[in-house]
Amino acid sequence: MSMDKDELHQRRQRREELRKERQKQQRMTLLTLIAAVIVVIVAILLIVVLSTGSDTPTQEEPLLPTESQEIQDTPLGVAPETTPNITFPEETNSWLHQDPTTVVHIRAAGDLNITDTVVNAGFTQNGYNFTTAFQDILPVLADADLTLMNFEGNVCGAPFGTQSASAPMELLYALRNAGVDILQTANSFTVHNGLTGMQTTLNNIRSVGIETTGSYANSQEYQDAQGFIMCEIQGIRVAIVAFTKGMGSRGIPATSEECVNLLYEDFATTYQKIDRDRISDILDNVNAEDPDLTIALLHWGSEFNDNIHATQESIIKLMQGEGVDVIIGTHPHRVQKVDFNQEKGTLVAYSLGDFFGDAKESGTNYSIILDLEITRYNDTGNTKVTGFDYIPIYTLKENEACDGQRRVVRINEAIWGYDTNFVDRITKEAYDSMKYSLERIEARVAGK
């Protein structure tokens, strides 16, 4: 089912309206604080006036200046030596003046793989509930100004699990409640259940209030979206575009090729011929909107492989030449290096690893949530990446958790809980694995 431009615009603006409401509440809080400060200052002045006025003669006994005294222009009842020296700002609304910079934080997580193990992590006697699976990383995802993730699967009904790669709706509700704003849907599983499965998945994701990027229900929807989405964060306009190297070796009808943003012309075979025209066309659409920052989410590289291919470097050069500031990769299921050019304010994260999955293959049980610091210099309007950090996370398996519940945890906090004998602490095996994971994450991010 296609959407008209008004529906598309409304969906894109929903999240910004919520942010503006929060900002309004923050401004009201600030106004209340300022009013309280003014009341305190007035109270202090009154105390000073009253305390000094008690020593001043009354009108029945006027005090006349002597020849050695000069008459001073002093407020009635206030002795000259005790007059407070208070300087007020030139404008009482100076707090509304624009700050020299605006800083926002965008966070991105890696692959969420829909498998039997992942689906079972939310199974209960009363249906599905994935709250526990994500509760430990909720503060990380929800605290960002914008949170992105790669969704490797479908949400198109039962049966659920590895074979169908379909997840229950409850997983989407849990992601939304954890703070996820945008899901990349251009990846190996985009058309795993055909075009109908893709369309159903997109509609279900959007129905819970999460935006999608990289795939479209039909050609008309692609034409309306122009291949990207635009977000506004505290006045900073950020364009988000997503591409995939392929769709699990699956093809797509020629009449529907616009439905998925693809990096290669030979997307169903060898991934050698970069689709430069398609990439440039979409980025031209982005640039026509004149965003302050452009982020490209790329599903690329090779699974369970640390090699960076020559075509990846070519894609980076092409995209940066077209104005892309940030490239965030997924698909290898392992953490790979992060290249940050501080002078230019650009960043390439080749692979964030698996956010949540089976964690069976080496290096797939740990990953990172990337934290981008974006700064706009309000005097010039220039916006760029001014720094990055990352939060190490770990897929805690059933046999590594004292309660037997598979979930995503923050590594540093889990280690601290073990060291302090926390009641719900991890096992010794998990503790040792996390210690090793921290070392490997640091080395991998550095490209070692």
Structure explained in plain terms:
The protein has 448 residues and is an alpha/beta fold. Helices cover 33% and strands 22% of the residues. It contains 11 helices and 16 strands. The protein has helices at 5-53, 116-120, 131-134, 138-142, 169-178, 194-207, 219-225, 276-288, 310-321, 411-419, 428-445, and strands spanning 101-113, 123-124, 127-128, 146-152, 182-184, 211-213, 229-233, 236-244, 293-299, 326-330, 338-341, 346-349, 354-356, 366-377, 382-396, 407-410. The strands form 3 sheets. Strands 1, 4, 5, 6, 13, 14, 15 and 16 form an 8-stranded mixed sheet that branches. The protein has a 6-stranded mixed sheet with strand order 7-8-9-10-12-11, with helices on both faces. A two-stranded antiparallel ribbon has the order 2-3. The longest helix is centred in the first third of the chain and has 49 residues, at 5-53.
Provide a concise account of the structure shown.
The chain has 448 residues and is an alpha/beta fold. The protein has helices at 5-53, 116-120, 131-134, 138-142, 169-178, 194-207, 219-225, 276-288, 310-321, 411-419, 428-445; strands at 101-113, 123-124, 127-128, 146-152, 182-184, 211-213, 229-233, 236-244, 293-299, 326-330, 338-341, 346-349, 354-356, 366-377, 382-396, 407-410.
